[in-house]
């Protein structure tokens, strides 16, 4: 049985802010990487491009110094002023082209540092009010721009991360299914969906079922771990509100032979940073191991013969242990 690999989006290891407050102190990228190496069981790094890195050579040297591996490069196409109202779906071709160019640069960077793939969450594409955007051109621009970025440097696959809300009130790619629909439309095999546990919950999905949908449609998947109250993307510590969902996601990830990093997309905010990630690591590793111990064959057989009572009993006894 394979062991879980865990990592973290290192932006959460420094100063973060929301509309009301700032949290923690600013730190350098080197300090963030040193910090990752101190978290129990973490070896993976998801780095935001282009804001958290020097050149590829310096970045690689720092990764080696702290014994870390890349889980992914996360390309940010929402921070620049012109992309705050959207990037890939906008009517202005210049704005779209510069966003595509940024994704291509992120792929070049990923290749140079040995990262396995690039992930992109087009958070600013969408709308805040009705009668704001042209749905027809917005969708077609999303398809065209993402296709162009996906086709570039095919050895570095491009992953799309759906999210229902924020920074736009209603994001373009607002569910796993819509992400899959976009990937089907662009017909490029070197693509995948980044399934963020909290985003999936906010879209009123069941993350395990959403993961299965990605694989059954022939695409690759990459997992971000966290939790929330389903109303907003709070980036809480994993399984703090959806324990059974967490176990079920692990069960199906194992069923599909998932062997990428489980990357933590959680924000410590008021909690002690190191202990926050240690607790996240603990519950995520624990959930993974618990899912490995379940009697997989028996569970699948109970599903086949529709033994719902047997399955509920399994959940009570083997998962909740009551
Ligand atoms: Mn995420």
TrEMBL record:
Key words, A-Z: Isomerase
Cross-referenced InterPro entries: Sugar_Epim/Isomerase, Xyl_isomerase-like_sf, Xyl_isomerase-like_TIM-brl
Keyword Isomerase belongs to the record: yes
Domain named Xylose isomerase-like TIM barrel: residues: 36-234
Protein name (record): Xylose isomerase-like TIM barrel domain-containing protein
Pfam families tied to this protein: AP_endonuc_2
PANTHER family attached to this UniProt entry: 3-DEHYDRO-D-GULOSIDE 4-EPIMERASE-RELATED, ISOMERASE
Gene3D superfamilies: Divalent-metal-dependent TIM barrel enzymes
A single GO molecular function term of this UniProt record: isomerase activity
